[in-house]
Amino acid sequence: MSRNLEISLLRSFVAVADHASMTAAGRALHLTQSAVSQQIARLEDLCGPLFKRERRGMRLTSKGEQLLGKARRLILLNDELWSDVQESTISGRVRLGAPYDLIGPWLGPILKAYAQSHPSVELSLSCASSPDLRSAVADGKIDIALVEEPTGMHEGECLAVDRLVWVGAKGGGAHWRTPLPLSLVAETCAFRPVVLGALDDHRRQWRTLFESGSIDATTETVRSDLAVTAWLASTVPADLSILGPDAALPELPPFAISLYQHKGIATDAVTKLSEAIRWGFGNR
Asked: Among 71, 105, 91, 81, which residue's Cα sits nearest to residue 268?
């Protein structure tokens, strides 16, 4: 069995472990479900049972858990070696789009590592709301987009799922005011229809206090206790508070962070960035 085949089997194994599904792993790897299933079967022929098949998905056996960490390290080493070999040959331009709130906590380390590994690539970043980013990648205005969308309704490749939570100032009282003052960054914010729908369902009066398109302005509005907002839990700044059930606000649904890539032929630079983003999210 060739080394390339071994890495291919391990990639399928890690993808199935991350997604608990052959189908989802296939989407992540751009393979058919059948191809992933065959690779897992071949790996299990070599190693023994790695997954328990359950109604809710696939769960690692004890042997699978032991293999997972080693598989991740081997794939990382393989990718680093190939990156070193190919570094001088990868060039061109990559246009990436992402919502404002994902730049710091999620994308910062990924983009730093990518730029260091591929210094000849010209990387441009566009920040916009998720609906606008989906349109931009479909129209070919950007190559890759990270999009926030409700779970169960996402059409892109799901990289992570996070709680949508209410956020307010530490020790603040804006959430008690009537009507509830809201700051939701922009009218096209992906969270806006979900948040307003939840408030309407609970017959909670609200008013939009500030929608400027600037996440920094929204942060300051919330920090000053002028309004509350809704963000993914992983993106909430440390000096703000996630408002719990005692705030008398309706529960909000989880959101998927999805990867979209333009359907045209991808350059090596675009492919490498997509791979780097998948790896970065998978190791959070």
From this structure: 91
| Pairing state between β 92-98 and 121-127 | parallel
% of residues, the chain, pLDDT over 70: 95
Q: Specify the DSSP element, H or E, that contains 197.
A: helix 192-201
User: CB under 8 Å to 160, separation ≥6 — which residues?
Assistant: 256, 257, 281, 284
- Judge residue 176's burial from the number of C-beta atoms within 10 Å of its C-beta, 0-12 exposed, 13-18 middle, 19 or more buried: exposed
- 84-132 pLDDT per residue, tens: 665 557 889 999 999 999 988 789 889 998 998 888 899 999 999 999 9
pTM for the model stands at 0.68
Tokens of 203: 């017959």
For residue 222, the tally of other CB atoms under 10 A from its CB is 27
CA distance 25 to 14: 9
